[in-house]
Specification:
- The protein has helices at residues 2-41, 61-67, 69-72, 107-110, 118-126, 128-131, 146-156, and strands at 46-49, 52-55.
- The chain is mainly α and 160 residues long.
- The chain has two domains: 1-41; 46-156, Cytochrome Bc1 Complex, Chain D, domain 2 (Orthogonal Bundle), CATH 1.10.760.10.
- It has a two-stranded antiparallel ribbon with strand order 1-2.
- The longest helix has 40 residues, at 2-41.
- 22% of the residues are buried.
- Bound molecules: heme C.
- Heme C is lined by residues 70-71, 73-75, 85-87, 89, 92, 97-98, 100, 105-106, 109, 116, 121, 125, 135-139, 144, 152.
- Heme C binds at residues 70-71, 73-75, 85-87, 89, 92, 97-98, 100, 105-106, 109, 116, 121, 125, 135-139, 144, 152.
């Protein structure tokens, strides 16, 4: 008696299970399609730093706003805000290095002849001492990784 009831319940459930399984497979296939699409549309060019290949990933300004906490101890970023330990960074993307009025730059920075674009910023943020030897920005090499640097640059581009 009990066994035949269980059996018929199982028979009624079987099609439901099959549908759920099919839906599951469909979702999985969809997710896998998305992954390959993301890979195709996200090229990762590389910049050489002292012989190493460092991925220059696509930046995300929202993530960069959060990562900028690491910079905010020393830098303001809004227009007209005062310099702190470091110069105000409003409009830094595309600007020549060591040109913020009233900031006392180091000689190596004044003589660096750098223009801050994606590539120079990416390298400087990851390895300030390596890019401008003797400069006075105290940020350890590797404290910000390639993705963090790209995100911060995307954020800085919203401040111009
Ligand atoms: C401990 C303080 C400190 C921290 C943290 C710091 N900086 Fe700096 N930054 C400086 C100082 C000081 C200078 C000026 C360097 C010089 O004159 O040699 C500078 C210079 C710069 C410059 C060059 C600006 C110009 O006008 O040429 C950029 C770009 C920069 N910092 C970006 C960043 C970013 C992005 C971060 C966060 C990832 C960061 N800094 C974190 C202190 C800091």
């Amino acid at each position: 008696m009990m066994d035949s009831k269980k059996g018929s319940a199982m028979r009624r459930l079987a099609p439901v299970v099959a549908v759920v399984a099919a839906a599951g497979a469909g979702t999985l296939a969809f997710a896998m399609n998305n992954v390959s699409a993301a890979e195709v549309h996200r090229p990762t060019p590389a910049v050489a730093i002292e012989g190493l290949q460092v991925a220059q990933a696509a930046g995300n300004a929202t993530a960069g706003a959060t990562a900028f906490i690491r910079c905010r101890v020393c830098h303001t970023v809004e227009r007209g805000e005062p310099n702190r330990v470091g110069p105000n960074l409003f409009g830094v993307v595309g600007r020549k290095a060591a040109t913020v009025a009233g900031f006392n730059y180091s000689d190596p920075m004044k003589n660096s002849n750098i223009t801050w674009d994606d590539a120079t910023l990416n390298r400087y943020i990851q390895d300030a001492a390596g890019v401008v030897p003797g400069n006075k920005m105290q940020l350890a090499k590797g404290a910000i990784n390639a993705q963090g640097a790209a995100d911060i640059i995307a954020f800085l581009k919203t401040k111009m």
